[in-house]
Amino acid sequence: MTSNSCNTIFDACVLDYHRQDDVDASMQNPYPPHSFEHLLYHKNWIDTVQWHLEDIVRNPTIDPVEGIAIKRRIDKSNQERTDRVEYIDAYFLEIYKSIQPRAGATINTESPAWAIDRLSILALKIYHMQAEANRNDATAEHIKSCTNKVAILLEQRKDLSLAIDDLLNDIANGDKYMKVYRQMKMYNDPSLNPVLYQQTGN
């Protein structure tokens, strides 16, 4: 699996979502269940839905009750997103479990999956910034600004893609090693969030 494959899947998923453009639309994952591609597509679908939920909840005229419901949906989505990232890291840990790190091998600042997570978000940024650059009702200044930002985002994706491929090659060669720390989110855990456990007395 290379970064180019990830980018292809993410771009396709973003396009698939926008054919319906509905946060309640059912995901039609084209890849076989339990495959790595299926996992990547699902990961990006979660990101894409959450992107639009974040837009909706920022509507200044939104009904407060609806806003709270969406905020809680975003919290749940964040947990699902984290779970999928950890599944991706589990995939890489399995692939590289037999690799013996060389003497002097170093650890990377982030795991492969969290770097791939950034590729997923970049796919969304590129799509939506390009949409802004193509608006017929926008000013010339707005279009120019967004066009410049698209170029920067594409360069950022190119650089990040290269860095991910280099990292995976380094891990495969034993020059770097993986060490994954599970996310310890506290706000969704009734035993760790004081607002929740103080209400239950636990």
Q: Could you outline the blueprint of secondary structure elements for this entry?
A:
Layout: H1 3-20, H2 36-57, H3 64-95, E1 106-107, H4 112-133, H5 140-173, E2 176-177, H6 194-200
Parallel strand pairs: 1-2
Helix pairs in contact: 1-2, 1-4, 2-3, 2-4, 3-4, 4-5
Top keywords for this entry?
202 residues, mainly alpha, two-stranded parallel sheet, 2 strands, globular
Task: Describe this entry's structure for a reader.
The protein is mainly alpha-helical and 202 residues long. It has one domain (3-200). It has six helices and two strands, in the order H-H-H-E-H-H-E-H. It has helices spanning 3-20, 36-57, 64-95, 112-133, 140-173, 194-200; strands at residues 106-107, 176-177. A two-stranded parallel sheet has the order 1-2. It is globular and about 60 Å long. The termini are far apart.
Gross morphology: globular
Number of domains: 1
Ends apart, CA distance between termini: 45 Å
- Helix amount, in percent? 55-70%
Strand content: under 5%
Tally of helical runs: 6
- Overall structural class, as computed from helix and strand content, comes to mainly alpha
